[in-house]
Amino acid sequence: MTLRINCWSGPRNISTSFMYAFRQRSDTTVFDEPIYAHYLRVTGRNHPGRNDVLASQDPDGEAVVRDVILGSHSTPVAFFKQMAQHFVDLDRGFLGECRNILLIRDPARVVTSFAKNVPDVNVADTGLPIQVDLLESILAEGEDPVVVDSATLLADGPFAEWLPAATSPSGPDFVATWTADLLRWRLARRRTDYVLHVLDEALLVSTRTRMAGVPIGVLLKVIPRRPPEHPLRSGPLVAAVGEHHRTPFIVHAGTNPAVRLRGIPLPRRLMPSPLEVVLHPLHPGFDADALELGGFEFLDFDAY
Question: Which label site among 74, 82, 137, 181 has the fewest CB atoms less than 10 Å from its CB?
Fold first, then answer.
């Protein structure tokens, strides 16, 4: 018997991080937005990457339900990250054969964030009407709905489990020390739409911006979950950020001794404004000239 889990979310939420958490389980196979092509075909919406999605997925939603969602899988658990707004012109009969989770977020924040990439955003694009319909359907069947508020999850999430010990930089250089409590506090001070990626090796904090109309993922911070024996490879980290924000362009500024970051240097005219570090010695023996910053990233300096 396969346990089939649909996580129905709206856009600009933490559904991808949710999916990555399930991907860490050896008994689970995950699927990323399997009915997205169906939605694009039915609605005709012109989303970024539309042609690529239509080319890579089956646009026949009924076939996807039959062959993928209700199909056979090699693991006892199948997790489907679903966007609620994609659930259009489909028979809902299959929902009774699945466990359904509603991942919600304040609609005002969803619209503000989503409008940066989809200018003609409307209420239906938030997925909220579909989530309400799904909630009413679940209640009508006499089932107990599973509703997760992403704001509560980030505020009360298992940060101590994700980051069990404080980062302990080695060497004489100055590197910020991050703890579970500090990370929780920092992400609660919302200066932008943060995304927390919980990977096996590290926690990543990212956001998204646009430059000349091109969506760009911004890697704000890399925090190893345990002391690495060797610098982490940047490829899997960058790929996780790019997959979530649906862009091949990732920007990172600064340096981090725990990860080997490689890429193409940006021209000065495209770089952020320079950051100035002002030192205020509080001890007569402090040698300001000897201070070296061993690691600094956007999140360390409140750049976002």
Answer: 74
Per-residue pLDDT reduced to its tens digit, 260-289:
888 888 777 766 666 666 777 777 777 777
Which H helix or E strand runs over 27?
none
| DSSP state for residue 264 in the 8-state scheme | P
Burial pattern 9-31, b for ≥16 Cβ within 10 A else e, equals bbbbbbbbbbbbbbbeeeebbbb
Q: What is the model's pTM?
A: 0.61
**Rounded alpha-carbon distances, angstroms, from residue 235 to 21, 106, 188, 219:** 19, 33, 28, 12
Query: Which amino acid belongs to residue 8?
Result: W
Compute φ and ψ for 179, nearest 5 degrees: -120, 170
For the stretch 59-86, pLDDT in tens is: 999 999 999 999 999 999 999 999 999 9
Question: Could you give the CA distance from residue 23 to residue 49 in angstroms, rounded to a whole number?
Answer: 24
H-run or E-run covering 63: helix 61-64
Kindly report, as residue ranges, where domains of CATH 3.40.50.300 are found in the chain: 3-153
